[in-house]
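Morning F.,

Quick status update on the modeling queue. The single chain you submitted on Monday has been processed. Sequence for confirmation:
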Amino acid sequence: MKIDLHIHSTYSDGVLSPEELVKLAVSINLNAIAITDHDNIVGYKKASDYIKENNIPLEIIPGIEVNTLFKGEEVHILGYFMDMEDKAFKEMLKKQQAARIAQTKEIIKLINKQEGSNIKFEDVKKLTVENGSMGRPHIAKAVIASGLTGNLSETYAKFINDKSPTYTQRKTVSPHEAVETIYDAGGIPVIAHPCDIENPEKLIPDLMNYGLRGIEAYHRKHSPAMVEYFSSLAEKLGLIVTGGSDFHSPSLVNGQILLGKNFIPEKIYDELMKEKKRIEIAHS
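Structure tokens below.
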């Protein structure tokens, strides 16, 4: 069984629409996917509707990737199978979207002040699909369109990297809040690409107290040694292992890899399904 449990669409920072992702997944013989847009579930819903309306033989798993902050460090939390109509879950997403808008406005303000430019919030908004998550890629495109820079790399380096004087961090939820909200909504919270976290061995056990149920051991950034390490850590802590390509683009630009790169063992899907049943029993 071929699966990919970490995919992004145009509803966050991916370049393909949900419908295009479904077509691509089918074309490379994937059996199941999860669209995990940042702080957004619209892409999942669009893809799910498209699959049903066209009787496409592809399983789509409800998913999300929540961007959080912990002690000034970004920590991403994946969620699977949560009730997307859960009140607290919807409130969290509403809070996340408001934070994205506030961050965008502040960054634009700082860039305009430093450069004497006249980039407007509407310039960024029109580059974001309706109801999509606004973020750095959209700000970068607006900056390029204004003529301040010539490409994405230059824009990130000059204006929107974490150390840039024109960049401000988003006032987002904590990983603890994200994990607890997903779990309480009947979902499976998983810590994403733990290689990006400074001290995952300390944070992961702490998040387990809030409902964390998995570690994304299989990821494009993880070497075979890292996969083995995080898989062993998951086994030690009694957590499941998940994995995905973290797909954004169908090309190799910016280091992205192809959708559904065949490196995720079939047992990952089985573990996820077993965990889904365990949580359903726990919430019944």
